[in-house]
Amino acid sequence: MPETTPRGLTRLAFGGDYNPEQWPESVWQEDVRLMREAGVTMVSVGIFSWALLEPRPGVYDFGWLDRILDLLHDNGIRVDLGTPTVVPPAWFYRAHPDALPVTADGVRLAFGSRGAICHSNAHYRTAATTITTQLAERYADHPALAMWHVHNEYGVPVSACYCDSCAAHFRRWLATTYGTVDAVNEAWGTAFWGQRYAHLDEIDPPRTAATVGNPGQALDYKRFADATMRENFVAERDILHRLTPGVPVTTNFMVALSQCDSVDYWAWGREVDIVTNDHYLITDGRRTHVNLAMAADLTRSVAGGAPWLLLEHSTSGVNWQPRNPAKAPGQMARNSLGHVARGSEGAMFFQWRQSRRGAEKFHSAMVPHGGTDTRVWREVVELGASLDSLSTVRGTRTTADVAVLWDWHSWWAQTLDWRPSEDHDPRERADAFYEALYDRHLTVDFAHPEADLSAYPLVVVPALYLMTEKAGRNVREYVENGGTVVVSYFSGIVDQHDAVHEGAHPGALRDVLGLTVEEFSPLLPGQAVRIAGSDGSELTGDVWTEVVVPRGAEPVWTYADGLTAGHPAVTRNRHGRGTAWYVSTRLGAQGLDALLGWAIEDAGVDARADLPRDVEVVRRTGESGTYLFAINHTAADVKVPLETDGTELLTGERAAGRLPVPAGAVRVVRLDG
Ligand code: GLA
Ligand code: ZN
Question: Which reaction does it catalyse (predicted)?
Fold first, then answer.
C-alpha cells in the first residue's frame, strides 16, 4: 500500500511552488531563512525544470537540484518533487515536432509556452518516463523527499490533440472499449446522417467538419483524451512507486474550475496516493468564498472523503483573468483555512517568490516583489503560525450533511452542440444549488451518480443530463429506502452514449419523479415566466421551461403564464418510503431556497438557521477530536453557538456558549469530550 501522507511531514503543509532556478544561488540562502521565519514546512520543486535538468539529449545536470534539496533538508523543509514532464525542452521538439499537439482545426501548436503535448506521441512517452526514471533513481534516498508531484495540471491548457497518432490511438481505444465496429456504430447511432463505418480504420477524431458532428463520437473522444492523459500519469507513477516505495505520488487537480472541464477526476482520484488541488478565486462578481467551498468539497469527495491537500492557491491577485484584484486584508487566511476546514491537510501557494521575469511576474506570491515589509508577507507569517497551531487536525475528516450528484461525463455530454438551448449551462445550475445549500449552512459531499447514497438524508441532482440506467436505479432505490431527492430540469435524459433513454423524458428518473416531460421549451433571452405556489406565493423562472405531465406527482408550483401555463413547475412525489422533488425551470436564489426549505423538512436535515449569512461553520472529526471551524466572511462581528465548550486553537482561549468571531476572522475550536 503506498503512503497517503507526505513522508516525514509532521505538521500541516505550508509553503508553495518554489522555483529557485529563476534566481541566483545567493537568493537561495535568503529564501530558506524566510521560509523558516514563516514556518514553511514543504515546498514543490522542479515542476518546470526539464530544460535545466537535461540541457541536451541524455546529458543531465542535477547539481543545482542536489544543492537546493540539501539546503531545504538542512533547514527542515520537506520537498514535493516535480517530474518536469509538462514542458519538454526546446531540443526535444526540434527533434520530434510531431509531439506538439494539433487542434481540431488542424493547427499544430508551437513551442514557447507550456503544456503543449500530444499524449499519444511515442517519443514524448519515452522521454517523459526516462526523465522520471532519472529523477527517481537520483533522489530515491534523498532525506528531503516527501512526495512526488507528477506533471502539472493535466488537461490544461490543452485537453485533447487531434493528430494522426491520436487518431490511431483512438481507434485502438475504440477496439478495446467496444470490440467491434458494429458496436461503435450502434453506440454512436451512425445510421443517422449516413455516418456508418465499415471498419474501425475509417474513424477519425472529431475534427472540424462541415457542421455538427456525431455526439457519441465527440463524447467518446473526451473519454479517450482523458484516459490517454491518465495512461501517461500512471506510467510515471508506476516508475516512482517501483523506485521510491513509500513516497506518495500526486498530480495537482483543478476540480471545480470551468476552464478545466476535460478531466474525469472521479477516475483520477482513484489513481493518486494523495488528492491535491489547485484553487484560484474567479473574480466574476459572485461570492468567491462560495466557489472556494464548493471546490474544497468537491476535492474532498474526489478523495473519497479522505484528507487531501491544497497544493496551490494565491496570497493575493492572480494575473490570468481579465481583471485581477488583490485580496483584502485577512482574505488569504480565510481562504486557506476554508480549505483546511473542508479537509485540506495544509495550504500551499503558487508561488514562493514572485518572479521578476516571465509570464507570471504579476501573479502574487508568498514573498512579493516588495519583499518582507509588505502586508502580504506579514499575513503569510501569521498564517504559518495559525497552521502550526492546528497541527492536530491532521488526519481528521470533514463531516457533510447532504450530497450533490456530480459527473464530468454528464457535463461533457451537456456541452455538446445542438441542445435545446445554449443558455442552459449545467455548471451554472450546480453552482446555484451549491450556493443555496451553502446559504443554509449545509456541508456538501459530491457523489458520483452510481455511488452509495444511503448515508445522506438529502440528495440534490442539478442538471444531470447523462445518467446511466444504473444511476437511475441508484436514485430510485435511494428514494424507495426513505431518501429525499431534489432534481433539476434536463436530468436523466440520455445514457452513456448520449442516446435518449427509451420512452418519455426523463427516462432514467420518470418513475421516481412520478411524471413525464413532454416537451422542453427554453425561453428567449430576457424572457421569464411567472410561477404560482400552492400556498399563494409567486416566483419567476427563466432560461428553461418544460411541459410536465404529472403521473402520480403532486404539483406544488404551477406556471402562471407562457407556453407551459397550467403545467407544474415544481412537483413532489412520494415514492416508496421517500420523496422526490422536481423543478422544471431555472429558479433564482429565492425560489431555490424555498424549494430546498421544503425538501430539507422532508429529509429532516438540521439546517442551522441560527447562523448569519456568510458565516461558514464546518466540522472535522477524528481520533484527535472534533474541530469546529467558524469563518466570518462578513464585516460584522458575530457569535456562533457551540454545542459544547472547547479550546480556540488560534488564540489559545477557552470557548463556551457562543463563540465570538470578529469581522473577517477565523476561529477553530477543538470541542471538549
Ligand atoms: C496554475 C499553475 C501554476 C501557475 C498558477 C497561476 O495553477 O499550476 O504553475 O501558473 O496556475 O495561478
Ligand atoms: Zn496527438
Answer: Hydrolysis of terminal non-reducing beta-D-galactose residues in beta-D-galactosides
